[in-house]
């Protein structure tokens, strides 16, 4: 059962999911608390598993990793063992940013980032198809990203409405 959030918890989460570099003092000031109660709320949400971690988002294009592909992957034999083997391999492949088991005609949808088409071809041949587990890959090259966010819609689980 999901944790219930009051408006202050939701506001804290909204702030840190948009800027993990904020200090506890800055967060406390913005939500109208002193630092100690704010820190306790953050720790409670970390312990409850609501806050999984804090990261720095990097700009892919600035790093030369602007080639992105969304691939639908069908396993040759989607058995419990092969699903586990494939997922273990994906965890080792740095190019794979996301891997989702899906319903329908394919078993997985994966999001891959790399330097260019040639690097993707190498990934496809050596890793995906070279695994011996995959029977079909349908690749879709990402042309433009209209929206990408890591921010969850907290207004769906709390009365708090984030500022736009």
TrEMBL record:
This is Lrp/AsnC family transcriptional regulator. It comes from Henriciella barbarensis. SMART domains: HTH_ASNC (SM00344). One of its GO terms (biological process) is response to amino acid. GO terms for cellular component: cytosol. Gene3D superfamilies: 3.30.70.920, Winged helix-like DNA-binding domain superfamily/Winged helix DNA-binding domain (1.10.10.10). Residues 5-66 form the HTH asnC-type domain. Keywords: DNA-binding, Transcription, Transcription regulation. The keyword DNA-binding applies. The keyword DNA-binding applies. InterPro entries: ArsR-like_HTH, AsnC-type_HTH_dom, Dimeric_a/b-barrel, Tscrpt_reg_AsnC-like, Tscrpt_reg_AsnC/Lrp_C, Tscrpt_reg_HTH_AsnC-type_CS, WH-like_DNA-bd_sf, WH_DNA-bd_sf. GO terms for molecular function: sequence-specific DNA binding. Pfam families: AsnC_trans_reg, HTH_24. It comes from the Bacteria.
